[in-house]
Write a structure and sequence with these properties.
Bound molecules: flavin mononucleotide
CATH class: Alpha Beta
Strand order of the largest sheet: 3-6-9-14-15-16-17-18
Shape: globular
Number of domains: 1
Helix content: 25-40%
Structural class: alpha/beta
């Protein structure tokens, strides 16, 4: 690697002041479910895994999606959940990240209509709740939440955020992306409510996510970091959009900024993909132009396939490290975003950041789908983040159960 290339990357290794916290560099490990929780509590290996990535140089680690303390949040038996009973396990993870030299946010999550209905998981008796009982247009599951239930769910986000704070987290990330509950509010296709929380106006659709952010801010105080993860794409629909126009995006971003967001984690499958015709700016760069909050981009850094191609379609990933890093450096230096999240590469190589910094590109271990899907070993049906994969496994389980009866 040439010294010139090394200096192009150097700005990515400068610290960033995020609210009251100083991050050592611009690299983030985003939330990634591993299926290593039991009854919502992380197994000790999850803390070890985070510690190793922190030692490996990543400045900020976001925990895997953690269900909030509400019965309707998830039925996944191997997913995280943050309540009083599981808090100590999450404290161990946060401690481990800090020991390794990174900061940590806990990702707060609710599946909404994507949650399994029926079944035999935790709180299976509880109804599946969402804005309008829709996974996507024409695909119903569960029922719309009443206003009273919405306020219970908002309180559950706050309760889990306060437990994260008590457990030592630097902040939380509110999961508003990928087709889960808060994204179901943001997306017109899944939010047909007529009570001021839904419909064709983005200002109404952002109201519930913004109320959650504001309630966490009020309870947790000014110094606690609040990140909001957003996306246009959904696991069930890659072409779906919460904001069709720049005006819609601006209304949404401003409402969330006003509510107290410090960081927008803008999830795209490819960080370099232009969002609107006529400009090469990605979604993160557009968000950055609309807020004073910090912005984190993500998607296929160093890899030739995006997350869904590699997990759903099983496409082989080749490394495109040097060309990808050059594009990353170009966009970062232009001011498109403040932080960059690197997902799969941090799974496959815990020292990815340190190796990139040192220019040891040939030592980087490339992501392989087997790193997250290990049939016969872990709970393979539960480690992939994908709703489709999880639903397929559930359908197979249900079919088997009904054959037995
Ligand atoms: C195994 C796995 C689990 C994931 N789980 C989550 C999750 O819990 N929460 C979330 O917001 N995104 C999740 N994602 C998406 C990642 O955070 C990230 O956005 C995605 O992998 C794209 O980054 P990459 O191209 O660098 O891998 C997951 C991704 C993977 C590979």
């Amino acid at each position: 690697m040439s010294g010139a290339f090394n200096s192009e990357l150097e700005p990515l290794f400068e610290p960033l002041q995020l609210n009251g916290t100083q991050l050592a560099n611009r690299f983030v490990m985003p939330g990634m479910q591993r299926g290593w929780c039991r009854d919502g509590r992380p197994e000790p290996r999850l803390a070890d895994y985070y510690r190793e990535r922190a030692i490996g140089g990543v400045g900020l680690i976001i925990t895997e999606a953690c269900a909030v303390d509400h019965e309707s949040a998830t039925q996944g038996p191997y997913y995280g959940r943050l309540n009083r009973a599981t808090m100590e396990g999450w404290r161990d993870c946060i401690k481990a990240a800090h020991q390794g030299g990174a900061h940590m946010l806990v990702q707060l999550w609710h599946e909404g209509a994507i949650r399994r209905s029926g079944g035999d998981g935790p709180y299976a008796h509880f109804p599946t709740l969402s804005p309008s009982g829709l996974i996507q247009p024409g695909n119903p599951n569960g029922r719309p939440a009443t206003t009273a239930e919405l306020s219970d769910i908002r309180d559950a986000f706050v309760r889990s955020a306060m437990l994260a704070q008590e457990a030592g987290a630097d902040g939380v990330e509110v999961h508003g992306a990928h087709g889960y509950l808060l994204d179901q509010f943001l997306w017109a296709g899944t939010n047909l409510r007529e009570d001021g929380y839904g419909g064709s106006d983005i200002a109404a659709r952002v109201r519930f996510p913004a109320e959650i952010v504001a309630a966490i801010r009020e309870a947790a105080g000014p110094d606690f970091i609040i990140s909001f993860r957003m996306s246009q794409w959904k696991e069930i629909d890659f072409s779906a959009r919460v904001a069709d126009t720049l005006d819609d995006l601006r209304i949404m971003v401003e409402a969330l900024t006003c509510a107290g967001v410090d960081l927008f984690h803008v999830s795209t499958r490819r960080f370099f993909q232009p969002e609107w015709p006529g400009s090469d700016l990605g979604l993160a760069a557009w968000v950055k132009s609309m807020t004073d909050a910090a912005v984190c981009a993500v998607g296929s850094v160093g890899l030739s396939t995006d997350i869904m191609e590699s997990l759903e379609a099983g496409k082989e990933t080749s490394s495109e490290l040097e060309s990808s890093l050059a594009e990353l450096a170009r966009r970062f230096r232009r001011g498109d975003f403040d932080l960059i999240a690197v997902g799969r590469s941090n799974i496959s190589d815990p020292h990815w950041v340190a190796k990139v910094r040192a220019g040891r590109f040939d030592e980087v271990r490339r992501f392989n789908r087997e790193d997250v899907l290990r049939p016969g070993q872990d709970n393979s049906a539960n480690v992939a983040p994908s709703f489709l994969t999880a639903r397929k496994a559930e359908a197979e389980r249900d079919a088997l159960e009904s054959q037995k009866k």
